[in-house]
Amino acid sequence: MANRIGHIGADYRSRFQLVLAVCLLGFAVTYLFSSLERVTAQAEQQGVRLMLNQFRSALVVKGAEAMLADEKLEPLVGLNPVQLLEQPPMNWGGDCQGADAEQGGWCFHEEKQAVVYTPRSPKARAAITGNEDAGTEPLAWRVEVDYTTPADNKPPRAVGLKLTRVKSGQINPWNHRD
């Protein structure tokens, strides 16, 4: 009888060890996937920032060229900044066709005159915008003229081009923002 009890105890102990091992493995896999998702969102955020910086650099050059040629900057409002780059980005989709924008891709919305990025996930969008309740809509930026106000109440003077984020991807036709 003593043998049977010892044998049953050993059987339960090995089952307990198996269950414990499966639980630990499940926890480790869950932690790994959550870490992977966080790192992927951070990588996407860095990629978007890099692309926006390339757009901004190209706009600085274009604005300087226009000012040196004594041209007005206002006609450049709504310009597609990808046209200023030597090569379009690898994930460039061209003209946006409504809701078919590829996730993780850039496109230009002709009607709204805005460059649009569609994040891969809500977590990536939250990382890019810095807003936890970011939603799932694409992000949009528009080329605008940057003005400075000189002293002595003189009228504002155009000093270059800038890339401005458009809230929720919508543009009001009266003031170019929502």
Major beta-sheet overview:
5 strands, mixed
H/E element string?
HEEEHEE
Strand percent estimate? 15-25%
Which stretches are low in confidence, meaning pLDDT under 50 for 5 or more residues running? 171-178
> Judging from the principal axes of the Cα atoms, what is the shape?
elongated
Quickly count the helices.
2
Q: What is the domain tally?
A: 1
Spatial order of strands in the largest sheet: 1-2-3-4-5
Rg over alpha carbons: 27 Å
Mean pLDDT: 82
- Classify the helix fraction into a percent range: 40-55%
Number of strands: 5
What is the terminal-to-terminal distance?
A: 82 Å
* Helix-strand category: alpha+beta
Please, could you describe this protein's structure?
The chain is α+β, with helices and mostly antiparallel strands and 178 residues long. It has one domain (2-169). It is 42% helix and 19% strand. The protein has helices at 2-68, 122-129, and strands spanning 92-95, 105-109, 114-118, 139-148, 157-166. Strands 1-2-3-4-5 form a five-stranded mixed β-sheet. Helix 1 crosses helix 2. It is elongated, with a radius of gyration of 27 Å. The termini are far apart.
Keywords:
5-stranded mixed sheet; single chain; 178 residues; 5 strands; alpha+beta
Produce a short descriptive summary.
With 178 residues, the protein is α+β, with helices and mostly antiparallel strands.
SSE blueprint:
Elements: H1 2-68, E1 92-95, E2 105-109, E3 114-118, H2 122-129, E4 139-148, E5 157-166
Helix pairs in contact: 1-2
